[in-house]
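lol forgot to send this yesterday, sorry. struct tokens for the thing we talked abt
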């Protein structure tokens, strides 16, 4: 597969550069590149500033960055993992949004951080949920990057506001309607049980833009969970999401918290975020098996309450580079490599100190 089709090639380049510093050879391949016990890999050659193709044996350690945008991708990856189960995988696939909510709800420590969430069944049920919570989000259970998300708010006795993004992340024009008009609109959207309906957390700043926080927790070189960093994200005007891919901007965590809270309150909120991140990481490892890193999308309500919006086992770390925290960004890139080295020593893997990155 050509390098032009790899979404994260810039990240893989940085990963390769950090790997050289600690003696780790990073090679990139997709499940489609595998030939028996070998793969046609991409290797970054810094002297030439380019990528080189070669046939190489499969390594003992895999850093999986595959995206499940289509069922075929998931099946291909699943088949690869089953066929090569003796390899060390730094992470495991997690569940979709609905299954994840059900799993997390089993924990008495984590459940209080979860917005009320139900699976979409019908428009009447959705409207009842909306009247109870006044603000809701409707999300594809397998969606990423803000695609296909709707925000519906009751703004008056019989007045509703629907906003959102389509599956190409394009902002949908705000739709103001009474209940009957909203019902007709929702029927036209042809929602299905592949969507979840979630209680909305008030995220609007004074200028009308929404915001949240991206927290990154990773395994370090001793195999222990450690919060690498947390940054704020502010969506563009008229957007219901703050994703950077959807035009959002990155802001330092302290500055964004400072728009709403006093310094003493900020310290408590940050501590709660970090403590929650450790609880969540430990719980998910107990449910799914060994993990390498987790990106958590966190909301803070106007009273300082912390809420988990989403958890991602294959997070981006771009937000730290955007706010100029280059040391945090470098650590975010190097930690999976350091963890891979630690894992190789624990598992007594061959001492070639090779790790490879799998993507699609």
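and heres what i got for the seq, position by position
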């Amino acid at each position: 597969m050509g390098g032009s089709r790899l979404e994260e090639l810039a990240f893989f380049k940085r990963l390769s550069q950090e790997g050289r510093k600690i003696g780790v050879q990073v090679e990139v391949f997709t499940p489609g590149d595998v030939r028996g016990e070998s793969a046609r890999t991409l290797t970054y050659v810094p002297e030439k500033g380019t990528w080189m193709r070669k046939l190489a044996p499969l390594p003992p350690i895999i850093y999986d960055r595959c995206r499940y945008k289509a069922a075929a991708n998931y099946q291909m990856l699943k088949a690869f993992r089953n066929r090569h189960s003796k390899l060390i995988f730094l992470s495991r696939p997690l569940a979709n949004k609905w299954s994840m909510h059900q799993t997390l709800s089993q924990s008495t420590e984590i459940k209080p951080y979860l917005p009320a969430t139900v699976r979409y069944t019908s428009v009447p049920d959705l409207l009842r949920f909306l009247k109870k919570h006044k603000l809701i989000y409707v999300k594809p259970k397998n969606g990423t990057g803000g695609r296909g998300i709707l925000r519906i708010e009751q703004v008056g006795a019989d007045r509703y506001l629907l906003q959102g993004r389509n599956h190409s992340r394009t902002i949908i024009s705000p739709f103001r309607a009474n209940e009957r008009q909203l019902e007709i609109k929702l029927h036209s959207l042809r929602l299905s049980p592949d969507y979840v309906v979630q209680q909305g957390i008030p995220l609007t700043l004074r200028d009308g833009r929404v915001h949240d926080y991206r927290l990154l927790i990773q395994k370090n070189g001793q195999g222990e969970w450690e919060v690498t960093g947390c940054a704020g994200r502010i969506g563009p005007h008229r957007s219901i999401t703050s994703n950077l891919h959807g035009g959002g901007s990155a802001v330092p965590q302290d500055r964004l918290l400072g728009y709403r809270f006093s310094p003493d309150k900020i310290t408590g909120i940050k501590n709660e975020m970090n403590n929650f991140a450790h609880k969540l990481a430990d719980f998910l490892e107990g449910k799914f098996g060994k993990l390498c890193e987790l990106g958590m999308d966190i909301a803070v309500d106007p009273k300082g309450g912390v809420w988990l919006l989403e958890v991602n086992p294959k997070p981006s770390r771009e937000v730290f580079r955007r706010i100029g925290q280059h040391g945090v960004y470098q650590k975010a890139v190097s930690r999976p490599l350091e963890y891979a080295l630690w894992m190789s020593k624990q598992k007594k893997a061959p001492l070639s100190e090779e790790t490879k990155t799998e993507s699609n």
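The radius of gyration is 21 Å. anyway ping me if u want another try
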